[in-house]
What we know:
One of its GO terms (molecular function) is ATP hydrolysis activity. One of its GO terms (cellular component) is plasma membrane. Keywords: Amino-acid transport, ATP-binding, Cell membrane, Membrane, Nucleotide-binding, Transport. It is found in: Cell membrane. The chain is an alpha/beta fold. It has a domain at 93-159. The protein is 38% helix and 25% strand. The chain is built from nine helices and ten strands. The strands form two sheets. A six-stranded mixed sheet has the order 6-7-8-3-9-10, with helices on both faces. The chain has a four-stranded antiparallel sheet with strand order 2-1-4-5, with helices on one face. α3 packs parallel to α5 (143-156) and α5 (143-156) runs parallel beside α6 (173-188).
Amino acid sequence: MIxxxxxxxxxxxxxxxxxxxxxxxxxxxTAIVGPSGSGKSTLLHSLNLxxxxxxxxxxxxxxxxxLNHSLAKSEVLEVRKxxxxxxxxxxxxxxxxxxxxxxxxxxxxxxxxxxxxLNRAHRLLAQFKMEELADRYPYQLSGGQQQRVAILRAxxxxxxxxxxxxxxxxxxxxLEAQVLRVLKELAQKDTSMIIVTHNMAFAxxxxxxxxxxxxxxxxxxxxTDGFFHSTDSRIKQFLGAMSF
Length: 244
């Protein structure tokens, strides 16, 4: 489980996160939703310290950090080892094949043997029926294929938690559906995922829990069904604006 307490992120002209306290259960899918500029991505990036919070407490399973003080490099690395990250942009290594993209991290960062890294990569490609892509380069893939490979690359590191920052926002609806099917399958396998998403239909169908961020604060933190059937006027306004 990941737990943040009184998490804050302040800029000279803006408070991005205002003393947020929320938990992210292991082996569940949590969707972070909210209007643009509300602090969703800032919260997600704070979990693996890509964004350095200006205050608060971060607990990841047995690891606990006081974010009110500067952190040692070793502490930051220990946190980041717990996570796999998928961004809006695919950000694959363009000079490497799909197979190499999947094995590079485990070999160089996790010091996994080449044989084990290859076995792991082939298992993932087979699991998601993407074996035919193994020898292709990113430029030979569609946007949806690239994003699916990016997800597999994160999984190849065998992280405890998978973070995804609007992984389908740059894709057209058909390609988006390809990626969402992969994420749905991962959710069904009890993968520990935290997803920032604008796709409310996907969040309602797949997420175990919703965290609604509004103006840098938590407007809802609880079961998915409770969010989509909430009588809260702000939540109803937000959901109403997402449909037409």
